[in-house]
Amino acid sequence: LPVLIVPVVDETTLRETYERMDAVLMAGGADVDPIHYGMEMTPKVYGVDPLRDHAELTLIRWAAQEDKPLLGICRGCQMINVALGGTLYRDIPAEYPDFTGVNHSLSGAVARKQPAHAVDIFANSRLAQAMAVPAGRLAVNSMHH
């Protein structure tokens, strides 16, 4: 059964909950505090939650060390990257102005409903199997900055 982890400072309680989990899923949300990847806060960084960051980084590191299945969605992918030593752009347009790739800047209500770009589905991949398609492209939404 899914378990919602409420960010707590008490690592004993967090560990007890983690021990009952078969896998860890990190969901989307606001930005990761740049302090965790060696950068400073800027006005473009929003919604930082220190307790959530701490709990998620701890869970990810435990899962990685103990080979427990781990999946990240959106912010969750970023958290996995940071927990394992990676870095992030705090704001792609501000820090990488020459970037001409995928537009992730749709915002507001339209961003949740309007596809922003396509992703490739490779033949025989897990995604192809889950989608029950041989291969192709899929339009997805996007709200990253």
From TrEMBL:
<dbReference type="InterPro" id="IPR011697">
    <property type="entry name" value="Peptidase_C26"/>
</dbReference>
<dbReference type="GO" id="GO:0006598">
    <property type="term" value="P:polyamine catabolic process"/>
</dbReference>
<dbReference type="InterPro" id="IPR029062">
    <property type="entry name" value="Class_I_gatase-like"/>
</dbReference>
<protein>
    <submittedName>
        <fullName>Gamma-glutamyl-gamma-aminobutyrate hydrolase</fullName>
    </submittedName>
</protein>
<dbReference type="Pfam" id="PF07722">
    <property type="entry name" value="Peptidase_C26"/>
</dbReference>
<keyword id="KW-0378">Hydrolase</keyword>
<dbReference type="GO" id="GO:0005829">
    <property type="term" value="C:cytosol"/>
</dbReference>
<dbReference type="InterPro" id="IPR044668">
    <property type="entry name" value="PuuD-like"/>
</dbReference>
<dbReference type="GO" id="GO:0033969">
    <property type="term" value="F:gamma-glutamyl-gamma-aminobutyrate hydrolase activity"/>
</dbReference>
